[in-house]
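$ run holo --ligand "iron/sulfur cluster" --emit C-alpha cells
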Amino acid sequence: MLLINPPVTRPCEPPAGIARLKTALAAGGVQATMLDANLEGLLHMLQAPANVGDTWTKRAEGSRQRHCEDIRSGRAFRSHAAYSRAVRDLNRLLDVYSAPSGARVSFGDYSSNALEPIRSDDLVRAAELPERNPFYGYYRERLPGLLEECSPGLIGISITYLSQALCAFALIGFLKKLAPGVRIALGGGLITSWLRRPGVRLAFDGLVDALVEGPGEEQLCRLAGAGQAPQLADIVPDYESADLDRYLAPGRIIPYSASQGCCWQQCAFCPEQAEGNAYHPVPAGQAALYVRQLCDTYSPALLHLLDNAISPALLGQLAQTPPGAPWYGFVRVSRELQAPDFCRALRASGCVMLQLGIESGSDRVLEAMHKGISSSEASTTLRCLHEAGIAAYVYLLFGTPWETEREAQMTLHFTAAHAAYIDFLNVAVFNMPVVAAQDSLHATRSFSEADLSLYADFDHPAGWDRKSVRRFLDQRFKRTGAIAGIIRSKPPLFGSNHAPFLAGKGRQVV
Ligand code: SF4
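-- output --
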C-alpha cells in the first residue's frame, strides 16, 4: 500500500496522519510506503530552471541553495531579517514557477485562477486535466518509478487542508491514468469535515474508490485487508522512512498527537464542537512514554504536539517525565497554567512555546462563546508563562456574533496591556461553520454557490460586519504601537511552525 501527503502544506515536518496509518497497517500485517509529495513537490519546484528575469527572482534564484541550507542549519534564524529574506525569496520562486500553470503556490497555500477547491466539479476537473497542475512535472518524474517499486493495490491520499485539495485531485487523475487498476482511498481532516457536513454528497465516481471518515485506521486496515486495527492509544507514528533531514526547519521537527477531538469541546465558534467530534485521549502516562520514545529514536530539535488542546493531565505528566527534546503545542488557559511553579516545571521539561486561544478581551464575549475562561485568568496565565520563559503564541478572534465594536476595543486594550507577555499573535476574522450556521439565530447565507464550502456568511446582530471588523483591525488594532511590534514578529509564511525558533532571547530553541 502507498500513503501520500499531497501538496500544499508547510514543508517543515513529516505528515503525522499517514505516519500513524503506516503503524496501524503494519500491526495488521500490511507494509505501507509513505510519500510526502508535499515536501518533494515543493523542493522539486524550487529547483526549476530560470524563466523570469526580474531582479527579485534573479536574486532569489542565485541564493536558493544557500537559503535552504541556512534554514536547515539554523543560520537563517539568527535574525528575523535574515529569516524573512530567506523564506520570502524561496516563496517568490514558488510564486513565479507556478504562475504559467495559472496557479499560485506558496509555502502553505495554493490557489488556482480557474478552479476552486470548494466545488466538487472543479476537483473533478483538476483530476481530468492533471497536466495543468504545477506539480505535474514532479508527479510524472516521481510516481511511475515508485509505483513500479512498491506495486500498491491501494493508494491512500490524506487531505487535511483546503490548500491540498486541487493538487490531490490532479494527483488522483494522474494515478488513474498511470495505473487504472489501483484503488484510491481518500481521507483526512478536510474529507471528514465534508462528509460530516449535512447536505453534502461527495461523488467522485471513477476517481475515488473509498472515502474514509475520521481517523481512518479501522477503515483503511479493512480496505487493505489488514488484521484488526490497533487502538489510538497503541499507535506510535512511524517516521523511519521519512526524509527527516530535508524538511525546511533548523533540525528535525517530530509531530505527535496524543488525542483525537478536543478535551473542552464547547467553544461555540469551533468546527470541532459543531461537527460533534468525540474526544479520545491517549492516557497521559502512555503518551509521555511515546513522546520519549519518539525523541530517543529521531533526536528531534523540536517536538510538535498536535492536540487541539494538550490536556492538563498530559501537561502534568510531561512536567514530571520530560520528553527529552524542546516541545510546543496548543493549550487552553487552565488553573494549572496560572501557577508559577507549574509553568516553571513545564519550562524545565522542555516546553518552549504554548499556543493559546484567548480570542477576546471581553468577559461577556468569552462567556457567550462558551470559552470557559475569563480575561483575568488569561492575564495570569500570560504572566506566568512569560516569567517561566515560555513563549506565548496568542490567537484572537474578531467579528463573532457575540462581539460589538466596543468589545473589540476591549480586546485591543487587553492585548496592548499584555504586550510584554505575548511573543506572537494570530488575528482572525470569524467565519461561521456551516454546521453551526444551521442552528444559528442569525440570518445566514453562503459565501458562494460552491457545494463544499465549510463556512457561511451571517448578518451580525450589532451590524459589526466583516468590512467594519477588517477596517478596525487594519486602521486601529494593527497600528497600536505595542501590538504592531508583536505582529511584525510573526514568522512570515511558516507562522507557528517556525515561531519556537524565533522566540525572544532565552525562549527560542536554537
Ligand atoms: S478549545 Fe479549541 S478545539 Fe476545543 S472547542 Fe475550543 S476552539 Fe475548539
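-- notes --
Residues 262, 264-267, 270, 272-273, 308-309, 332, 357 surround iron/sulfur cluster (CB under 6 Å).
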